[in-house]
């Protein structure tokens, strides 16, 4: 694999915070019910801020932290399932706003596995481009895909963005293993953004919904079996033991899922940091949000081994092992 040197990490979340108590005013629920089932206390909701605007804030922070000019970027990849438009892509919009005139820009959609999938794509692009520089951002405005009258899904999701700037500089900070799997036969168990078809020439009479629909039991079982299996395959590929990993930076879908994965791997929760209480499930933004927080707090040092794992819509699962 090529060099994948992480030069900077950054995050941006909307100012508005919606607590569990706030949700009790619009849903038949309670703070205790939500916390017990999910581990979530609050989430950030973008009211007057677009997905693109959150991404621009992250991109500008990354450039400032790394001391790199926008026109030095070769690639901008955005992992999202909630872009502002079908076209232009969020990445293209960010590229234009920050003035990254030399960067190829595009979005990918692998839902909650998107950041891991996007990072592996960026790794492949950089491998053939010595000195190349790229940004990968996971960002979501999931609040527009939530039915705020459905307590089974409305309590789960939040908005936010985070990412990293990476360079192929030949250093030791790189991806050591990648494990990506897709289970399309299970795709209908977690859906969002299905819009009705209506043309002058006919319409689709099937009832569809733009809002999240989820078979919670199936998705829970999927996550708690496929995620630990993916982690183990990636560890084997990297030639590492689980106890050599400083942190398992997992998608923050549900606290119970993370605890179950830790138990299946016979590992202490000390290795599985959580921030779901503050942000909820932010899909593709989830892992980079947590990574950025850990770096900002000084909990991750250069040379640490990390396992980043995403799982969700598609259904998809992905793990990458990196040496930070």
TrEMBL record:
Keywords: Acyltransferase, Cytoplasm, Fatty acid biosynthesis, Fatty acid metabolism, Lipid biosynthesis, Lipid metabolism, Multifunctional enzyme, Transferase. It is an enzyme of class 2 (transferase). Residues 235-324 form the Beta-ketoacyl-[acyl-carrier-protein] synthase III C-terminal domain. Its EC number is 2.3.1.180. GO terms for molecular function: 3-oxoacyl-[acyl-carrier-protein] synthase activity; beta-ketoacyl-acyl-carrier-protein synthase III activity. Transmembrane segments: none annotated. GO terms for biological process: fatty acid biosynthetic process; secondary metabolite biosynthetic process. CDD domains: KAS_III. It comes from the Bacteria. InterPro entries: ACP_syn_III_C (IPR013747), ACP_syn_III_N (IPR013751), FabH (IPR004655), Thiolase-like (IPR016039). The keyword Lipid metabolism applies. The active site is at residues 112, 251, 281. Pathway: Lipid metabolism; fatty acid biosynthesis. It is found in: Cytoplasm. Residues 252-256 are annotated as: ACP-binding. Its main location: cytoplasm. Residues 106-184 form the Beta-ketoacyl-[acyl-carrier-protein] synthase III N-terminal domain. It catalyses: malonyl-[ACP] + acetyl-CoA + H(+) = 3-oxobutanoyl-[ACP] + CO2 + CoA. Catalyzes the condensation reaction of fatty acid synthesis by the addition to an acyl acceptor of two carbons from malonyl-ACP. Catalyzes the first condensation reaction which initiates fatty acid synthesis and may therefore play a role in governing the total rate of fatty acid production. Possesses both acetoacetyl-ACP synthase and acetyl transacylase activities. Its substrate specificity determines the biosynthesis of branched-chain and/or straight-chain of fatty acids. Belongs to the thiolase-like superfamily. FabH family. Homodimer. The last Arg residue of the ACP-binding site is essential for the weak association between ACP/AcpP and FabH. This is Beta-ketoacyl-[acyl-carrier-protein] synthase III. The gene is fabH.
């Amino acid at each position: 694999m090529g060099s994948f040197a992480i030069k900077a990490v950054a995050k941006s979340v909307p100012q508005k915070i919606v607590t569990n108590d706030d949700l009790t005013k619009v849903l038949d629920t309670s703070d205790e019910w939500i916390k017990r089932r999910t581990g979530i206390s609050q989430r950030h909701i973008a009211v007057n801020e677009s997905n693109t605007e959150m991404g621009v804030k992250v991109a500008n922070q990354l450039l400032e932290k790394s001391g790199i000019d926008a026109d030095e970027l070769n690639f901008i990849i955005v992992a999202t399932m909630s872009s502002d438009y079908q076209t232009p892509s969020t990445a293209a919009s960010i590229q234009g706003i920050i003035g990254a005139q030399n960067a190829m820009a595009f979005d990918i959609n692998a839902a909650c596995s998107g950041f891991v999938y996007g990072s592996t794509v960026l790794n492949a692009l950089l491998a053939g481009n010595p000195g190349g520089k790229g940004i990968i951002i996971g960002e979501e405005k999931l609040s527009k895909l939530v039915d705020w009258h459905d307590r089974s899904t409305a309590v789960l999701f939040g908005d936010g963005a985070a990412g990293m700037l990476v360079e192929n500089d030949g250093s030791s900070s790189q991806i050591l293993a990648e494990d990506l799997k897709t289970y399309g036969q299970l795709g209908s168990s977690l859906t969002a953004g299905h819009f009705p078809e209506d043309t002058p020439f006919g319409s689709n009479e099937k009832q569809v919904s733009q809002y999240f629909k989820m078979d919670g039991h199936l998705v829970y079982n999927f996550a708690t079996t496929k995620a630990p299996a993916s982690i183990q395959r990636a560890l084997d590929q990297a030639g590492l033991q689980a106890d050599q990993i400083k942190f398992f930076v997992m998608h923050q879908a549900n606290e119970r899922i993370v605890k179950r994965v830790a138990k299946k791997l016979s590992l202490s929760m000390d290795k599985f940091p959580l921030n779901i209480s503050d942000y909820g499930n932010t899909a593709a933004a989830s892992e980079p949000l947590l990574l950025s927080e850990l770096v900002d707090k000084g909990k991750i040092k250069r040379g640490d081994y990390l396992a980043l794992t995403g799982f969700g819509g598609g259904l998809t699962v992905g793990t990458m092992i990196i040496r930070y």
